[in-house]
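Much of the work behind modern protein science is quiet bookkeeping, done one molecule at a time. Below is the pair of lines this work produces for a single protein:

***
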Amino acid sequence: MPDPSHLVHLSYRIRLTKNPKENLRMPKFLASTLKLVPTAALAAVLMAAPFVVAQSSPGQSSSGQTASGQSSSGQAASGQSAAPQGSSPPASPAQTGQGQTGQDQTGGNQQPSETLKVNVNVVQLFFNVKDKHGMLIPNLTKDDFQIFEDGKPQTIKYFAAESNLPLTLGMMIDSSGSQRNVLDMEKEVGGAFLRQILTDKDEAFVISFDISVDLLQDFTRDVRRLQSALNKAKINVDFTSGGIPGLGGGPVPQQNSPGTLLYDAVYLSAHDMLAKEVGRKAMILLTDGQDEGSRLKIQDAIEAAQKADAIVYVLLCADRGFYGGMGYYGEADMKKLTEQTGGRVINVGNKFDKLREAFDQIAAELRSQYNVGYTPTNTKLDGTYRKLEIKNKQNYKIQARAGYYAGKNQD
């Protein structure tokens, strides 16, 4: 499948509006892009920046200070994580590959990703195990599992019953007109979840999406900034005018107008943000699941998430009354998105308690992930999709991504 990223860049509604006086560094996704583009083309890159950035204060997380190391190492191979082939899981990007000369920590201009691409070929999986009632099963061992790639058994190189690797989390909030009755609830409970789940070594960013995809907060571990970013999300339609998003209401143009760029938002979050990170990565979408007007398709969003090794959770906050007789069809696509990436859909409707419970469930799952790595018997780095299956002797349910894309070898 051709790279669809240029389709998103063509959207005139997605533009860079970050205030340079308030932000002392570029977002990591833009900084890493500029390093790879000749000077004469910088203007073209800025014109094509895929996010509207509406951030009042810069993220000052450690991720921004190590973008040249940590972000580059995340590009070791699409769908594959840079990890040693030892018996224990990797602790940090500095421990990956054969080129660990301290470049990842110094933030120098060297590009260690070139070394990692040729020296590392380990697939890393994070997954949950549940019984028939949906309860998490801890304390299983390496011998309880078998891994199959395209139906062929693989040898497990390392295994951990819990993961202490840093977590990078994308909080994505639907601010289209259909969310008007649940948006405030999402902001409050979402902020409480971030305060609960993030540790000193974790980081998160906030994106809102409606007629555009807005980066409200770049990578940070500061929960106050994250909460402030959530609070900035505003419904994009003036309902006093009687308008409906995408049909001429409020600021939305009447012709060829998008209303909820959900698929575009997932793609951009995966491709432009999470793909450059290492360790555990997840997206949490607060949405009714109904896309309106995205340039990309659901399969583009799924493929980008899989290539970024990102788990996608969807909290279905659907105010069904908004749609009236127009129909609602978002849940099926969200199930497809989450099942292919190792997450799941949790239907909360417009209930505060259900939303809080759903976040608690996600927190428990992220804290109870098994971490396994293997070197594939198929050593070709040809960019093809490889189907994954994890089996266990007790026949418990395995919640894991369905496959990955073997990164192309760059000579």
Observations:
- Residues 167-367 form a domain with the Rossmann fold fold (CATH 3.40.50.410).
- The first helix runs from residue 5 to 9.
